[in-house]
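Could someone model zinc ion with this protein?
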Amino acid sequence: MKQNFREFFMQKLLVLIRPEDIDASAKEFISTYASYMTEAGIVAKDPSGYTLYPSKYAPVEEQHNAFFEEWINLTDSLGIHTAVGMDFYTDRWFAKDPKYQTVAPNGVPMEHQICPNRPEFWEYGVEIVKELGRYPAIHEILVFGTGFIRDHFCFCERCKREFAPLVNQEPDKLTYGYLTENPEYHEKWHEWRSEKVYQGIIMLQKAAEEVNREVEREKPLRLTIEVLLDPETGLIKGARNEYGYDPLKLLEITKSVMINLFPWSPLLPTPGSKEYDDLIEALYFATEFKRRGGTVALFRWGVSSLDHLHELKQIGKDAGIERFIGTLGYPTDYSIRRESAVGNY
Ligand SMILES: [Zn+2]
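Reply:
Sure, complex below.
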Protein backbone atom coordinates (compact mmCIF):
# COMPACT_ATOMS: atom_id res chain seq x y z
CA MET A 1 0.00 0.00 0.00
CA LYS A 2 1.41 3.36 -1.03
CA GLN A 3 -0.22 5.51 1.63
CA ASN A 4 -0.53 5.75 5.38
CA PHE A 5 -4.05 4.44 5.21
CA ARG A 6 -4.04 2.95 8.66
CA GLU A 7 -3.00 6.25 10.27
CA PHE A 8 -5.42 8.23 8.13
CA PHE A 9 -8.30 6.01 9.18
CA MET A 10 -7.24 5.97 12.82
CA GLN A 11 -7.23 9.78 12.74
CA LYS A 12 -10.78 9.62 11.35
CA LEU A 13 -10.03 11.04 7.93
CA LEU A 14 -12.67 10.11 5.39
CA VAL A 15 -10.43 9.33 2.40
CA LEU A 16 -12.33 9.69 -0.84
CA ILE A 17 -10.56 7.08 -2.91
CA ARG A 18 -10.42 6.05 -6.54
CA PRO A 19 -9.67 2.39 -7.27
CA GLU A 20 -6.27 3.43 -8.72
CA ASP A 21 -5.28 4.80 -5.31
CA ILE A 22 -4.95 1.32 -3.88
CA ASP A 23 -3.23 -1.70 -5.33
CA ALA A 24 -5.64 -4.25 -3.95
CA SER A 25 -9.16 -5.42 -4.52
CA ALA A 26 -11.95 -3.74 -2.55
CA LYS A 27 -12.27 -6.87 -0.46
CA GLU A 28 -8.56 -7.14 0.35
CA PHE A 29 -8.34 -3.48 1.20
CA ILE A 30 -11.40 -3.34 3.39
CA SER A 31 -10.59 -6.54 5.24
CA THR A 32 -7.17 -5.04 6.04
CA TYR A 33 -8.44 -1.67 7.24
CA ALA A 34 -12.08 -2.05 8.26
CA SER A 35 -11.29 -2.17 11.95
CA TYR A 36 -9.75 1.33 11.74
CA MET A 37 -12.46 2.89 9.55
CA THR A 38 -15.48 4.77 10.79
CA GLU A 39 -16.23 6.42 7.46
CA ALA A 40 -15.32 5.34 3.95
CA GLY A 41 -15.53 7.17 0.65
CA ILE A 42 -15.29 6.23 -3.00
CA VAL A 43 -15.66 8.36 -6.14
CA ALA A 44 -18.95 7.72 -7.96
CA LYS A 45 -18.78 10.41 -10.67
CA ASP A 46 -15.58 12.26 -11.44
CA PRO A 47 -14.68 15.49 -13.30
CA SER A 48 -14.38 13.58 -16.58
CA GLY A 49 -18.18 13.18 -16.32
CA TYR A 50 -17.80 9.38 -16.19
CA THR A 51 -19.24 7.29 -13.39
CA LEU A 52 -17.63 4.36 -11.61
CA TYR A 53 -21.03 2.78 -11.05
CA PRO A 54 -23.18 1.47 -13.92
CA SER A 55 -25.20 4.64 -14.64
CA LYS A 56 -27.99 4.69 -17.19
CA TYR A 57 -27.57 8.42 -17.77
CA ALA A 58 -23.88 9.22 -17.59
CA PRO A 59 -20.99 7.60 -19.48
CA VAL A 60 -19.51 4.75 -17.44
CA GLU A 61 -15.99 3.57 -16.55
CA GLU A 62 -17.06 -0.04 -16.78
CA GLN A 63 -13.78 -1.44 -15.51
CA HIS A 64 -14.60 -0.01 -12.07
CA ASN A 65 -18.21 -1.11 -11.67
CA ALA A 66 -17.45 -4.32 -9.80
CA PHE A 67 -14.97 -2.59 -7.49
CA PHE A 68 -17.43 0.20 -6.73
CA GLU A 69 -20.30 -2.08 -5.86
CA GLU A 70 -18.17 -4.48 -3.84
CA TRP A 71 -16.69 -1.54 -1.92
CA ILE A 72 -19.98 0.08 -0.89
CA ASN A 73 -21.60 -3.24 -0.03
CA LEU A 74 -18.71 -4.26 2.18
CA THR A 75 -18.34 -0.97 4.04
CA ASP A 76 -22.09 -0.75 4.57
CA SER A 77 -22.35 -4.32 5.82
CA LEU A 78 -19.49 -3.69 8.27
CA GLY A 79 -21.35 -0.72 9.76
CA ILE A 80 -18.95 1.86 8.26
CA HIS A 81 -20.55 5.15 7.20
CA THR A 82 -20.42 4.97 3.40
CA ALA A 83 -20.06 8.12 1.31
CA VAL A 84 -19.55 8.55 -2.43
CA GLY A 85 -18.17 11.53 -4.36
CA MET A 86 -20.06 13.19 -7.19
CA ASP A 87 -18.47 15.95 -9.25
CA PHE A 88 -21.22 17.99 -10.73
CA TYR A 89 -20.49 21.14 -12.76
CA THR A 90 -17.03 20.02 -13.67
CA ASP A 91 -18.12 17.51 -16.25
CA ARG A 92 -15.86 17.32 -19.26
CA TRP A 93 -18.08 14.87 -21.08
CA PHE A 94 -21.21 16.98 -20.83
CA ALA A 95 -19.28 20.20 -21.41
CA LYS A 96 -18.27 18.97 -24.87
CA ASP A 97 -21.63 20.35 -25.91
CA PRO A 98 -21.16 24.11 -26.43
CA LYS A 99 -24.79 24.64 -25.40
CA TYR A 100 -23.88 23.93 -21.79
CA GLN A 101 -20.44 25.46 -21.37
CA THR A 102 -19.99 28.30 -18.94
CA VAL A 103 -18.46 31.34 -20.62
CA ALA A 104 -15.88 33.92 -19.46
CA PRO A 105 -16.63 37.66 -19.88
CA ASN A 106 -14.35 37.77 -22.94
CA GLY A 107 -16.56 35.18 -24.60
CA VAL A 108 -14.19 32.24 -24.10
CA PRO A 109 -16.19 29.08 -23.29
CA MET A 110 -14.92 26.63 -20.67
CA GLU A 111 -14.63 23.14 -22.04
CA HIS A 112 -14.66 21.48 -18.63
CA GLN A 113 -17.45 23.22 -16.78
CA ILE A 114 -21.18 23.73 -17.20
CA CYS A 115 -23.09 26.95 -16.59
CA PRO A 116 -25.10 26.55 -13.33
CA ASN A 117 -28.01 28.40 -14.95
CA ARG A 118 -29.10 25.20 -16.71
CA PRO A 119 -32.21 23.65 -15.16
CA GLU A 120 -31.82 20.76 -17.60
CA PHE A 121 -28.39 20.01 -16.17
CA TRP A 122 -29.74 20.10 -12.62
CA GLU A 123 -32.31 17.57 -13.89
CA TYR A 124 -29.39 15.42 -14.95
CA GLY A 125 -27.98 15.78 -11.42
CA VAL A 126 -31.35 14.71 -10.05
CA GLU A 127 -31.11 11.45 -12.01
CA ILE A 128 -27.56 10.83 -10.78
CA VAL A 129 -28.60 11.47 -7.14
CA LYS A 130 -31.52 9.06 -7.56
CA GLU A 131 -29.35 6.36 -9.12
CA LEU A 132 -26.88 6.60 -6.25
CA GLY A 133 -29.63 6.82 -3.66
CA ARG A 134 -31.13 3.58 -4.92
CA TYR A 135 -28.11 1.77 -3.50
CA PRO A 136 -29.18 1.30 0.13
CA ALA A 137 -25.49 0.85 0.94
CA ILE A 138 -24.77 4.50 0.09
CA HIS A 139 -25.44 6.75 3.07
CA GLU A 140 -24.15 10.06 1.78
CA ILE A 141 -23.25 11.83 -1.45
CA LEU A 142 -20.42 14.38 -1.34
CA VAL A 143 -21.45 16.84 -4.05
CA PHE A 144 -18.57 18.82 -5.56
CA GLY A 145 -18.83 21.88 -7.79
CA THR A 146 -22.38 23.18 -7.71
CA GLY A 147 -21.50 26.87 -7.99
CA PHE A 148 -19.95 29.31 -10.44
CA ILE A 149 -16.24 29.31 -11.33
CA ARG A 150 -15.81 32.86 -9.96
CA ASP A 151 -17.51 36.23 -9.88
CA HIS A 152 -16.70 36.81 -13.55
CA PHE A 153 -18.84 33.87 -14.67
CA CYS A 154 -21.17 33.29 -16.40
CA PHE A 155 -21.45 35.27 -19.61
CA CYS A 156 -23.13 32.62 -21.73
CA GLU A 157 -25.98 33.73 -23.98
CA ARG A 158 -28.62 32.52 -21.55
CA CYS A 159 -27.15 34.26 -18.51
CA LYS A 160 -26.70 37.52 -20.42
CA ARG A 161 -30.21 37.37 -21.81
CA GLU A 162 -31.76 36.75 -18.39
CA PHE A 163 -29.64 39.06 -16.32
CA ALA A 164 -29.13 42.12 -18.58
CA PRO A 165 -32.73 43.42 -18.24
CA LEU A 166 -32.36 43.37 -14.44
CA VAL A 167 -29.62 45.99 -14.72
CA ASN A 168 -31.09 48.00 -17.61
CA GLN A 169 -28.71 46.71 -20.21
CA GLU A 170 -28.83 45.04 -23.61
CA PRO A 171 -27.68 41.39 -23.38
CA ASP A 172 -24.99 41.98 -26.02
CA LYS A 173 -23.62 44.97 -24.15
CA LEU A 174 -23.46 43.33 -20.73
CA THR A 175 -19.83 43.31 -19.57
CA TYR A 176 -18.18 42.41 -16.29
CA GLY A 177 -16.98 46.01 -15.98
CA TYR A 178 -20.55 47.28 -16.32
CA LEU A 179 -21.56 45.13 -13.33
CA THR A 180 -18.63 45.91 -11.09
CA GLU A 181 -18.74 49.68 -11.69
CA ASN A 182 -22.13 49.85 -10.03
CA PRO A 183 -22.27 48.32 -6.53
CA GLU A 184 -26.03 47.88 -6.77
CA TYR A 185 -25.74 45.96 -10.04
CA HIS A 186 -22.87 43.93 -8.70
CA GLU A 187 -24.91 42.90 -5.64
CA LYS A 188 -27.82 42.01 -7.90
CA TRP A 189 -25.45 39.79 -9.86
CA HIS A 190 -24.41 37.99 -6.64
CA GLU A 191 -28.01 37.53 -5.55
CA TRP A 192 -29.22 36.35 -8.92
CA ARG A 193 -26.41 33.80 -9.28
CA SER A 194 -26.68 32.43 -5.73
CA GLU A 195 -30.41 32.01 -6.25
CA LYS A 196 -29.68 29.82 -9.30
CA VAL A 197 -27.41 27.66 -7.18
CA TYR A 198 -29.92 27.37 -4.30
CA GLN A 199 -32.75 26.43 -6.60
CA GLY A 200 -30.57 23.73 -8.12
CA ILE A 201 -29.46 22.34 -4.77
CA ILE A 202 -33.10 22.25 -3.67
CA MET A 203 -33.78 20.05 -6.72
CA LEU A 204 -31.00 17.65 -5.70
CA GLN A 205 -32.25 17.55 -2.11
CA LYS A 206 -35.79 16.77 -3.28
CA ALA A 207 -34.38 13.93 -5.37
CA ALA A 208 -32.67 12.56 -2.25
CA GLU A 209 -35.93 12.75 -0.31
CA GLU A 210 -37.83 11.07 -3.11
CA VAL A 211 -35.39 8.20 -3.23
CA ASN A 212 -35.57 7.84 0.57
CA ARG A 213 -39.19 6.90 0.14
CA GLU A 214 -38.29 4.43 -2.58
CA VAL A 215 -35.51 2.61 -0.77
CA GLU A 216 -35.64 1.29 2.72
CA ARG A 217 -32.82 2.86 4.64
CA GLU A 218 -32.31 3.40 8.34
CA LYS A 219 -31.23 7.03 7.89
CA PRO A 220 -32.13 9.40 5.07
CA LEU A 221 -29.61 9.85 2.26
CA ARG A 222 -27.44 12.83 3.13
CA LEU A 223 -26.18 15.33 0.56
CA THR A 224 -23.07 17.23 1.59
CA ILE A 225 -22.34 20.28 -0.51
CA GLU A 226 -18.81 21.52 -1.21
CA VAL A 227 -18.21 25.18 -0.34
CA LEU A 228 -14.96 26.70 -1.61
CA LEU A 229 -13.23 28.86 0.96
CA ASP A 230 -10.50 30.87 -0.58
CA PRO A 231 -8.51 33.83 0.82
CA GLU A 232 -8.35 35.54 -2.59
CA THR A 233 -12.10 35.86 -2.73
CA GLY A 234 -12.65 36.94 0.84
CA LEU A 235 -13.44 33.58 2.46
CA ILE A 236 -17.11 33.31 3.53
CA LYS A 237 -18.16 36.47 1.72
CA GLY A 238 -16.52 35.13 -1.39
CA ALA A 239 -18.21 31.77 -1.06
CA ARG A 240 -21.53 33.50 -1.56
CA ASN A 241 -20.55 36.37 -3.86
CA GLU A 242 -18.02 34.67 -6.10
CA TYR A 243 -19.13 31.07 -6.19
CA GLY A 244 -22.80 31.41 -5.32
CA TYR A 245 -23.18 29.45 -2.08
CA ASP A 246 -23.83 30.70 1.40
CA PRO A 247 -23.23 27.96 4.00
CA LEU A 248 -25.98 29.18 6.32
CA LYS A 249 -28.49 29.03 3.49
CA LEU A 250 -27.37 25.48 2.74
CA LEU A 251 -28.28 24.64 6.31
CA GLU A 252 -31.89 25.12 5.32
CA ILE A 253 -31.54 22.74 2.38
CA THR A 254 -29.12 19.86 2.96
CA LYS A 255 -27.94 20.55 6.54
CA SER A 256 -24.48 19.36 5.55
CA VAL A 257 -21.48 21.11 4.01
CA MET A 258 -17.81 20.42 3.46
CA ILE A 259 -15.48 23.38 3.34
CA ASN A 260 -12.86 22.98 0.63
CA LEU A 261 -10.03 24.93 2.23
CA PHE A 262 -7.79 27.09 0.06
CA PRO A 263 -8.53 25.06 -3.07
CA TRP A 264 -6.15 27.02 -5.29
CA SER A 265 -3.17 27.03 -2.97
CA PRO A 266 -0.77 24.17 -2.19
CA LEU A 267 -0.31 25.52 1.33
CA LEU A 268 -2.56 26.08 4.30
CA PRO A 269 -1.83 29.05 6.56
CA THR A 270 0.31 28.39 9.61
CA PRO A 271 -1.05 28.89 13.14
CA GLY A 272 -0.12 32.32 14.47
CA SER A 273 -0.29 34.07 11.09
CA LYS A 274 -2.93 36.66 10.29
CA GLU A 275 -4.16 34.50 7.44
CA TYR A 276 -4.70 31.66 9.90
CA ASP A 277 -6.67 33.86 12.30
CA ASP A 278 -8.80 35.16 9.44
CA LEU A 279 -9.55 31.59 8.41
CA ILE A 280 -10.58 30.55 11.92
CA GLU A 281 -12.81 33.61 12.14
CA ALA A 282 -14.39 32.73 8.79
CA LEU A 283 -15.15 29.26 10.15
CA TYR A 284 -17.10 30.63 13.14
CA PHE A 285 -20.30 29.95 11.25
CA ALA A 286 -19.68 26.24 11.87
CA THR A 287 -20.62 26.60 15.53
CA GLU A 288 -23.97 28.13 14.65
CA PHE A 289 -24.43 25.61 11.85
CA LYS A 290 -23.89 22.68 14.21
CA ARG A 291 -26.02 24.19 16.96
CA ARG A 292 -28.89 24.21 14.49
CA GLY A 293 -28.41 20.55 13.64
CA GLY A 294 -26.07 20.82 10.66
CA THR A 295 -22.90 18.89 9.88
CA VAL A 296 -19.68 20.64 8.86
CA ALA A 297 -16.57 18.96 7.51
CA LEU A 298 -13.22 20.34 6.43
CA PHE A 299 -12.11 19.12 3.03
CA ARG A 300 -8.77 19.23 1.28
CA TRP A 301 -7.44 17.85 -2.00
CA GLY A 302 -4.06 16.11 -1.99
CA VAL A 303 -3.82 14.98 1.63
CA SER A 304 -0.83 12.77 1.01
CA SER A 305 1.01 12.80 4.32
CA LEU A 306 0.29 12.75 8.01
CA ASP A 307 1.68 16.30 8.21
CA HIS A 308 -1.05 17.47 5.82
CA LEU A 309 -3.65 15.75 7.92
CA HIS A 310 -2.32 17.28 11.14
CA GLU A 311 -2.50 20.78 9.62
CA LEU A 312 -6.10 20.15 8.70
CA LYS A 313 -6.91 18.78 12.13
CA GLN A 314 -5.32 21.76 13.87
CA ILE A 315 -7.64 24.08 11.92
CA GLY A 316 -10.55 21.85 12.85
CA LYS A 317 -9.58 21.97 16.50
CA ASP A 318 -9.37 25.76 16.52
CA ALA A 319 -12.64 26.13 14.61
CA GLY A 320 -14.62 23.47 16.46
CA ILE A 321 -14.96 21.19 13.42
CA GLU A 322 -14.48 17.47 13.91
CA ARG A 323 -15.13 15.95 10.53
CA PHE A 324 -12.36 15.67 7.94
CA ILE A 325 -12.56 14.57 4.32
CA GLY A 326 -9.72 14.40 1.84
CA THR A 327 -8.49 12.97 -1.42
CA LEU A 328 -4.99 11.60 -1.84
CA GLY A 329 -4.40 13.40 -5.12
CA TYR A 330 -5.73 16.39 -7.02
CA PRO A 331 -8.61 16.22 -9.49
CA THR A 332 -7.47 15.23 -12.97
CA ASP A 333 -8.58 18.60 -14.31
CA TYR A 334 -7.10 20.58 -11.41
CA SER A 335 -4.81 22.82 -13.47
CA ILE A 336 -7.53 23.95 -15.83
CA ARG A 337 -9.92 24.49 -12.91
CA ARG A 338 -7.38 26.53 -11.05
CA GLU A 339 -6.54 28.53 -14.15
CA SER A 340 -10.19 29.36 -14.80
CA ALA A 341 -10.72 30.36 -11.17
CA VAL A 342 -7.61 32.48 -10.59
CA GLY A 343 -6.62 33.38 -14.13
CA ASN A 344 -7.36 36.72 -15.78
CA TYR A 345 -10.50 36.97 -17.81
ZN1 LIG B 1 -24.42 30.94 -18.11
